[in-house]
Amino acid sequence: MPMTVVSGRFSPAFLPIRFPVSRLLPVKYADQRRVVFVPRSARASSSASVSVETNSSVNSAIEKEKHREEQEILACPICYNSLAWISQPNGLIESALSGTQLQCNTCKKSYSSNETHLDLAVASGSKQYSEPMPLSTELFRTPLVSYLYERGWRQNFIWGGFPGPEKEFEMAKEYLKPVLGGNIIDASCGSGLFSRLFARSQLFSLVIALDYSENMLRQCYELLNQEENFPNKEKLVLVRADIARLPFLSGSVDAVHAGAALHCWPSPSSAVAEISRVLKPGGVFVATTFIYDGLFTFIPFLKNLRQEIMRYSGAHTFLSERELEDLCRAGGLVGFTRVRNGPFIMLSATKPSR
């Protein structure tokens, strides 16, 4: 049966030639919206050629639209103005291999790919300067921990009350329902465990796997390419960036997810403020983390001790629920809610709607 290609929100839909035209979905182009269909008069004589031609034009339109969406969301982490492609990639997942380069439209700082990912950290491109992070961050930049993360390390989180990636993913989807179909940043993605789940679900138009660790992003790239017939691979973007200096335009992101990450951030307040900045009105922030509150919240001596522990380790595992709620409120987010299971907590907050 001859087929007509019509672009939907997430992927091309193949419809029979007799499918009612009134039920066709619009194809979204960079500069217009239009419906692609085969006229009844042309069906008998040229349906095959028209179908092939339409397939090619729609695929081209989808590719252009994808690049437009990616370009519209990315920003210079120095001045927060938009970035422009110097060399256009075939897809961001392949951008590193094709030598993709971007440049800030304002300060003219250039950014490029780094083997497997786009490097959009502030110090990207520096030759001599390096900036060590707290121990809790540097640990995950090592090749050994990056390799072991999904090969035994993450599985031990069950002892801290974490229900497991698949269950956590289902829990997160409940919070993310208002923004399904939009774009999502998987912040501090590690080896991409949840990034792949988000992309595989096909619930989001664009998934950005973001981490500060180059080795974690390499693992993410390798694990992604080990999966045959991975759906929506072209909509999964790997980006290296600092959580406290996100390379995205203000108000351009529908959702931010951070799995087992907040306790490792050097400054959770700076990170939440950045997340709030990039979220659209009504955008959703969902995070899981470890917290050991209890006695540390009520006994003055232990409260001082935990401050010293966090100061030298860089880990914020001793925050309380009330402090996490206050953290989100101070960062401009509202509607704080949470689920607890021992040290495990999943929290969510929302950028206020206008």
TrEMBL record:
Highest taxon above the source species: Eukaryota
Main location: plastid
Alphabetical keyword list: Chloroplast, Methyltransferase, Plastid, Transferase, Transit peptide
InterPro entries: Methyltransf_11 (IPR013216), SAM-dependent_MTases_sf (IPR029063)
Ranges where the Methyltransferase type domain occurs: 186-286
Localization per Swiss-Prot or TrEMBL: Plastid, Chloroplast, Plastoglobule
Annotated GO biological process: methylation
SUPFAM superfamilies attached to this UniProt entry: S-adenosyl-L-methionine-dependent methyltransferases
Molecular function in Gene Ontology: S-adenosylmethionine-dependent methyltransferase activity
Record-level GO cellular component terms: plastoglobule
Family (UniProt): Belongs to the methyltransferase superfamily.
Name the UniProt record assigns to this protein: Methyltransferase type 11 domain-containing protein
Gene source species: Microthlaspi erraticum
Lineage of origin: Eukaryota, Viridiplantae, Streptophyta, Embryophyta, Tracheophyta
